[in-house]
Amino acid sequence: MTGSDVTSSDVLSSSAGGAPPPQPQPQPQRGLIPALLLVALAAALCLGLLLVNQSSQDPYTRSSLALHGDLERGTKLFLINCAGCHGIAAQGLVGPNLHGVSQRKRDPALIQQVVSGRTPPMPKFQPDPQTMADLLAYLHSLQ
Ligand code: HEC
Fold first, then answer.
1. What confidence tens digit (pLDDT) does each residue in 52-71 have?
2. What is the CATH number of domain 59-141?
């Protein structure tokens, strides 16, 4: 029993006196996969932000969205310019029923619909930003 005591104290003293035992190296694979996932996530986030920004980054859309729309004026504008196709209560005629359209489409898409002329026979309108904001206020009021 005495012999074994001496051996264990020898091990302790040599360990305390010398350099600390080398730490095991962290395995590179362990950190690599989470790191890659993080990078992929960050890339996806950047791309998402870029796409979201792009749709509202065009200056016309941005300034239209920044303005407060006047519902009364929007209603008049609609009756004069749009009701011929969409109906006097936006119930649909040549063009579709617009009730609930602001729940189906986001504002930049509504603006594109009005200004792009991409879906004939709906013409390409060129309202100034305030007029666009007023029309949007009207479209929002259609529940
Ligand atoms: C000459 C007829 C015509 C006029 C005038 C017209 N539209 Fe349209 N509009 C259409 C048609 C047709 C569509 C369907 C286009 C498609 O998706 O193919 C449409 C689609 C839309 C949509 C998308 C509806 C949806 O469910 O996605 C909105 C919003 C809209 N019009 C708003 C307006 C506004 C605001 C005006 C007036 C500034 C206007 N329209 C004037 C014919 C017209």
1. 655 556 999 999 999 999 99
2. 1.10.760.10
Whole-model pTM? 0.71
Query: Among 76, 84, 79, 74, which residue's Cα sits nearest to residue 121?
Result: 84
Instruction: Give residue 77's pLDDT band: very low, low, confident or very high (50, 70, 90).
Output: very high
Contact between residue 124 and residue 81 where contact means Cβ atoms under 8 Å apart: no
Question: Does the beta carbon of 105 sit less than 6 angstroms from any atom of ligand 1?
Answer: yes
Kindly list the domain boundaries of the chain, sorted by start residue: 59-141
Interior angle at CA 16, CA 14 and CA 18, nearest 5 = 65
Q: Ligand 1 pocket, 137 CB below 6 A?
A: no
